[in-house]
What does this fold into?
Amino acid sequence: MGNETAPKSTSAGQRLRLAMASHERVLPFIGVYDVFSASVAGRHFDSLFVSGFGFAASNYGLPDIGFVTWTDILAFVQRLRTVLPAHNLLVDIDDGYCDPDVACHVVSVLESAGASGVVLEDQKRPRRCGHFEGKQIMELDEYLAKLRMVLATRRDLVVVARTDTADQDDMVRRVKAFAEAGADAVLIDGLPTLDIVRRLSKEVDRPFCFNQIAGGKSPPCTLGELHDAGVKMAIYSTPCLFSAQAAIENAMADLQARDGTLAGNTIGVRDCNRVLTDNLERRDSRP
It folds into this structure.
């Protein structure tokens, strides 16, 4: 796994662009919350999503309402890239961490650290997860100024422009403006249906992303359904985090029910160490 067909001399952004252009259907990005979850997910998928929701949960134990700092995200991406040198890494950077100058700096250092792409949203702070209520939206001109500065700063990094507006007319206006500004892809978060994507994917010459999160506002869709609606990139923000929560809850309940015995565990120390050893070998084999 991990873009073995791409020339090793290409940048992470170029490799992602190649994957976006060559993928016949919908390119899935699996949300990860730490290096171990990325290591496991990376055995199955070539493209990973550094989820703000997952990172806030795993690093701070807090909800996704603006606690994530760009320095922590940068350190996370550096650790990911060390053990996953060939995977596509799409990074959630919220609003760019406040002002345009900071956003440009973050994009620059993330690209240097090996990020393949970023998602830049148009929420005001205090921000919210895109699938919750209470979001405040930036004025379009303010966001476009930041987006254009970010686009001028990056080299090959893919920039996905995201809107969290709930007004359909505003969705159309913003997505078209994002495309005109030069965003590489567009994302409308928290959509209750695919109808607006079906419409805009025919009117806007940019790849459409769709964000799926279990229990969120958007309906659960197959990759085939997303493809038929015109989606090119599917972000799965939290499958690793939610699966881990369920597995840990079950493991703790089983430990209590079995009087403390670990008999019957499906994963043992050798299974876990195999993932870690693979990471070490992959790190040491980098050119």
About this structure: DSSP finds eleven helices and eight strands in the chain. The CA atoms of residues 130 and 197 lie 17 Å apart.
